[in-house]
Write a structure and sequence with these properties.
The longest helix has 41 residues. The chain has a single domain, classed as Up-down Bundle (Growth Hormone, Chain: A). 79% of the residues lie in helices and 0% in strands. It is mainly alpha-helical.
């Protein structure tokens, strides 16, 4: 669903801002949904079985209205296409060709996002068990308050990144940002007993680090990636692939957990995953940054070398295949 929604927003000069606003709904809605669910059950005394239907009855009309409004958005202008590359639908052959062309960096990013998606799903789905809310003394609206602060911070960071016109610089800054996020996850996990963070501070650090990484790839990164390398494609392909790999990983982890360790300490389990994810993802993002910068420089050198030959037509000595790659 996210890939379909994003197809209405991509390829515009203001995509960064629109995508940031859309993406932050994931962050703020997570805590709000938990708080609303607890309030409906504890405050309105609606059963656990009927709680989702009660909340959904209010959400569905709003979802339908906003979905219709998105179909009324104007199409990207020529100026948008010149700055961000025209977006086209990919068939199976085009998807395979695109993946082969950028396979080293995509394997790194898809693999890292597998860890991030699994970790986020575990945190979101089992947060009440990880924190033991009753023992921690947190109110039902604590989740919403933490996610609201996290949302404002990420919105500020993304708004600054949207002002960077150079696509390759934006990609490097995003990779530096997500590397800091995953490094923080690993640091907190490996020093959990030493740091002795309060539950609310721990939740804030986890939410800020995870959402910064997750939303960077769900919103800004591949939008700039396509524009940087003038790729004939669309962001939906990358996002849907990320989600497919990530959610498959979540299902696999939960299946293994149910069969081999049904009774676990959720906090220890989460910290173990966070430590591994922090280490692996930090290395993957650094390597991805090195690849992107080196490839961008190589393609720029090729463009500078063969630019005088572009207008030479059939008399050009430039190899046809290389000419197509450069263009």
């Amino acid at each position: 669903m996210w890939g379909v929604i994003f197809s209405f927003l991509e390829g515009r000069r203001v995509t960064d801002l629109l995508a940031s606003l859309m993406g932050l709904s994931i962050a703020i809605s997570s805590g709000t949904a938990k708080s609303a669910g607890l309030y409906v059950m504890d405050g309105l005394h609606i059963s656990e079985f009927w709680m989702p239907a009660f909340i959904g009855a209010f959400a569905f009309p709003l979802l339908s209205l906003l979905g219709w409004l998105m179909t009324r958005l104007p199409q990207p202008t020529e100026a948008d296409k010149a700055l961000r590359t025209e977006r086209v639908t990919l068939d199976g052959c085009a998807r395979r060709s695109l993946f082969k062309s950028f396979m080293p960096v995509l394997v790194l990013l898809f693999g890292a996002n597998l860890f991030i998606t699994v970790l986020q799903d575990i945190k979101e789905d089992f947060l009440v068990k990880i924190l033991d809310v009753e023992a921690a003394g947190l109110s039902s609206w604590a989740f919403a308050k933490v996610d609201a602060v996290v949302t404002l911070i990420i919105l500020f960071i993304f708004s600054l990144l949207s002002m960077v016109r150079s696509n390759v610089k934006a990609l490097c800054l995003l990779l530096a940002l997500v590397t800091c996020g995953t490094a923080t996850l690993g640091l907190v996990a490996y020093h959990y007993d030493t740091l002795r963070l309060s539950p609310i501070v721990w939740l804030f650090v986890q939410s800020l680090s995870l959402y910064t990484v997750y939303l960077s790839f769900q919103t800004l990164f591949f939008e700039r990636f396509i524009a940087c390398f003038k790729i004939k494609g669309n962001v939906g392909f990358f996002i849907i692939t990320l989600d497919f790999i990530g959610y498959t990983g979540t299902v696999a982890v939960l299946v293994v957990k149910e069969f081999f360790s049904p009774d676990i300490n959720w906090l220890d389990f989460y910290n173990l995953m966070a430590g591994c994810a922090g280490l692996v993802c930090s290395v993957a993002f650094v390597l991805a940054g090195v690849y992107i910068v080196s490839r961008y420089r190589r393609e720029r050198r090729l463009q500078d070398t063969y630019r005088p030959l572009r207008g030479a037509g059939a008399n050009s000595s430039m190899p046809r295949g290389l000419a197509a790659d450069v263009v």
